[in-house]
Every structure is written in structure tokens, then in C-alpha cells.
Amino acid sequence: MRGMGMERSLGGYGRTFGLQRQEMGGPDRPPVKVDRARLGRVARYFAPYWPQWIVIFLCIAATAGLGVLPPLCVRGILDHAIPDKDMRLLYLLVGAIVGLNIVTGLIGVLQNWVNARVGQGIMFDLRNHLYGHLQKQSLGFYTRTRAGEIVSRLNNDVGAVHGVATGTVVSIVSNLMTLVATVTVIFSMNASLAALAVVVVPAFYLPTRIVGKVRRRLSSETQAVQADLVAFMEERLNIGGIMLSKLFGQSRADAQTFRERNRQVMDLTVKQAMAGRWLFMCLSVISVAGPALIYLFGGRLAIGGEISIGTIIAFAAYLSNLYRPIGQLANVYVDIQGGLAVFERIFEYLDTTPEVEDRPDALVLGSTRGHLRLEHVSFSYPVRRRPSAAPEKEEPTSESTESSARLALDDVSFEVQPGQRVALVGPSGAGKTTITYLLPRFYDPTAGRILLDGHDLRDIQQDSLRAHMAAVTQDTFLFHATIRENLLYARPDASDEAITMAARAANIHDFIMDLPEGYDTVVGSRGFRLSGGEKQRVAIARALLKDPRILILDEATSNLDATSEYLIQEALEKLLQGRTSIIIAHRLSTILNADQIVVMDRGKVVEIGAHADLVDAGGLYAKLYRQQFSRVVEQARLSADPQGGNRRR
Length: 649
Description:
This protein has 23 helices and ten strands. It has three domains: 1-26 and 363-468 and 548-649, Rossmann fold; 31-350, ABC transporter transmembrane region fold (Up-down Bundle), CATH 1.20.1560.10; 478-535, no CATH class. By secondary structure, it is an alpha/beta fold. Strands 6-7-8-3-9-10 form a six-stranded mixed beta sheet, sandwiched between helices. Strands 2-1-4-5 form a four-stranded antiparallel beta sheet, with helices on one face. Residues 1-29, 385-404 and 644-649 have low confidence and may be disordered.
């Protein structure tokens, strides 16, 4: 029968997070333009450190000023101290050369220390800002974006900001000051030789600009490929990915894919290195031409008695201070573009507006009775393209065969009284899970409204709303931390006594105490060191510790052994007592114990009522009940009546 079986299991929990309705992918990233708005936005992260920047610029100015003095000392030695046999002047000038280098080195140490503090400070601020902003993103953002991509932005891209702060900015200022100081000195020494030295400048500029563009392109490609490689490793090198790889025999194929992507990184890195080497070769050749011209024409002037030998030597020494900053400044536009490209990737996340935001006058919910009412609620998952997120290729699910425009919820209305248990049942894709996403405001309704104690959820501050809610799902998530830390995540100020009481109520305390390290046992990635039933009971203890007024529950236990199922059901019964509960029901006992059953199909509420009434009505619920539970009821009846069972056999 179409649509029955596993696909239409009673209360089946489709953990797709709306992913089947998300449109993935995006165009290639366009080049970043250097404009005042972008520069101003970047400057706002540099501005808080203006006192340190003043120190850095003073250090640069001092280094540039002192850097032009050693060649003058050399000229003094060659032109005056040696010819005049003035030992006092010789000692003074040689001492000055050594002293200037010591002072310059000390200033450099101070500059580097302040520089590092500024760079790390900007990274600290930016990473905190980005992490805080990512925390505000709605659930849809994380269904569209791979975890590896997010980690890459927080680590690699924010890390690259340090290079922009301590490298690009300082390099530009340092080179400009060195260039100004050097040009001023050489023109004051001899205008003709200075003009000759400047003539060679275009020969440094052109290859630097050309190779700089090539290296920027290669750098951008390398960054993208590295992000893709990190995302691949993030997916494959975890418990779930490794298990899937082994179970489906894809280890060799994954290794080959990794090898190919790793080779791309290697090839691009080699190309970057070679591009730099070609530039170095060109500049090395040109750097010889400059001094050669100075020696040629300067030598002629010296032979004619127009200048001294010391002036020629000093000029040759100044050429490195002239050509090096010009060569680096030739690529300044590309450097600025590269720096902006790093910030642009970060700003792309910072500019992503959460789909769910608090209103300026949002109500802070101090307490709640737990009275919920859905009024004509409709919802469709948002479809947004994100150009930079490297999306996963999703296989279509049973729900994705429908048009992406189909409403996940269509005019849904029902009410939950305080302390009432409501079971959501229906085939997979009916919209049950979507309701559990709307209640804690992971998403907001497209139309209609959800009320809590008479307040529209959109008028309530998200954090204060969720403070009164907890969820226990079949797909339990635990952090790679101790059991104690996982429990305290629900209530950080909980005492050891409260933790123990919650664990006892969840039937997990005795098991924890049998572990070698008790509550300080590390559960492993996603709680992998625990069985499914043990993870479920830890999750129940976590919810009990929070003591929520409203509970969202997916109480599926079909994949657990009988003992674990019994312990969990007993713990769940304690958890449900006195709370408003929305339960995606999988078990007949849960459905029978519910105060109200809401039957859903294709995003609509098709039936509401008690079990007996819905069975008598002969609708969808009765159909699903007969298919899945009539055999269970019959077996239970036969077990209670052995003679009847024998007659039947």
C-alpha cells in the first residue's frame, strides 16, 4: 500500500529539520571591491586599539628615521675618518652604526610585542562577535551550512585577520615611511644619482603587480579548497562518519576523495611557491641593475671629482631601502583586497540575519502555566541561497518529492491545557516535528499564531521562553564531556544533590555509580561510549534537572532492549508528571495515556480526540491503529487468556 509501512508509521519522527525544503548551492564568489564603506567597516575593529596603533606607528617612524643613518655613517668613515686619519671620528661612527642597530632592534621588539597584542585582540573580539552571532542564527542556517564550513570561518578566516592586522597594515605604513625617508635623503645627497635610482622603479613595480595578482588568485583558490577539505574531514572523521564509511565499505573511496582534495591543496600551494620564486628571480636580476647603474654613473662622477667614493657606497646601500618598499607597495592594492576578502567572508556570516529575532519590546517570561494554543498556524520552510556555504548534496527524501512550496503546516489549530498530555500522531512528513520546532521558536509561523498563556510566542523573548521548555528526543545528543558536565548543561548552578536526584528519577544513577569514574566519566563524542538506552536516560535526567513547565518529547524506544525500554518508560512517566507535554507518540501506551490525540496528515490536523472516539470514527487514526497496533492488542489479549489462545491455535 502506498504511503504505509515505515514511511507512514504512527507518530514516526522525521529528523530532517526542514532540510528537504532547503535550496542549496550558490554562485562563485565575486572579487572584493576596495571602497570606503568596506574599509570603514574593517576599521571599526581596529579603532578600539588606537593607543596601541599610535605606539606602533611611532616605532615604525623611529625605525624608518634611524634606518637612513647607517649609510651616512659609512660615508663619513670613507670620506672623512679614513682619509683624515681621525681615529676619534672612526670610533664614533663605528660605534654609531652598532648603537643604531641595537636601538633599532629594541624598537622592533617593542613594535612586535604591541603588534601581536593588537592582532590577537582583534581576533579575540572578532571571534567572540562571530560566535555570538552564530548562536543567534535560526535552525535553518545550520541545515543549510556544513559544520566544517562554520569551523573554517571561525578558525581559518578569523586567524587570517591576524596577518591583516600585523602584516598588511603595518607593512604598508612601514614601507611608506621607509620610502619617504630614503627618497628625502638620497635627493639631498645627489639629485642626479637619485633620479637614476628612481628610473629603475617601474621594473620592480610591473612584475610585482603581475605576480601579486596571480598569487592572490591562487591564495583564494587554496583557501576555498582548504575549507572544502576541512569540511570533508569534519564529516568523515567523527563517530557517525567513520561508522557509515565502514558499514557501507566506503573507506577506500573516502580515502581516494581525501587524497584528491589533499592533492589540490598541495598543487595550489606549490603553484603559490613557484609564483613567488619567479618574482624573487625577476627582482633579484633587477636589484643588481640598480647598483650597477649607480656604480657606473657614480664612478664617472667620482673620477671627475664631482662626488666622493663614500657617497657612491652610501647610495648603493640606500637602494635596498628604496626598491624593497616600492616592490612591496606595488602590490598594496592586492594586499588590501586580500585582507578585505578575509573580512568579507566573516562579514557574510555576520550579515546573515536570523530568521527568528526578538522584538525590541519582547516580554521576559518569568513564569508560565503552560497553556498552549495554536490558531490557524501555517508554515513553510524558508528557502535561501548562501553563496559561500559549501552545501552538502542531499538525496531526496520521501517528503522532498513534493513541491518545495508545499506548506509543512497548513491551518493547524488545537489547544493544550496546563499540565495536559497531547500526543501527535500521523504518517511521516505529516508536520509533527515541525510543530515541535515552532514551540521553542526555532522557526516562526508563516501565518497564524501560537499562544502561551495568552501571549503570542513572537512577543516573548526567546531565551525566557526556552527557559521553561525542555526536549527529549530519540536522537539524543551528548557533548564530548563528563556525565556531570552534560547534566549541568541544563542547569549550571545545580548542586550535587540535585544532580543525583535527577539521575535517580531517570533510573540512571546506579549505572553511573558503577562506572570507574562515576559522574566524571567522559561519554565520548555524541555519547558514543553509552548505549542508546543509557544516553536516553541521561537526557531524561538532564530534562528533569532543568524542571521545565513544558516538555517536548519524542519517546521512541523501538530500537532498545526490553530492560532499557522499561527503565526509560518508568523515567518518562516521572518526567511527564504535572507538565504540559507535546509528545510525538510511537507507543500505544503513550497514546492511550494521552489526554488528547492530534492526528495529522500532510501538514493538516485531520482528527482530534481520545483514543476510543477516534477508533470509532473510522478515520486515518483508526486505519493506522488497526495496521500497527491491532496485532499488539490481540497478542496481549491472548497472553491474558491462555485457553482462548489455545483454542485459536
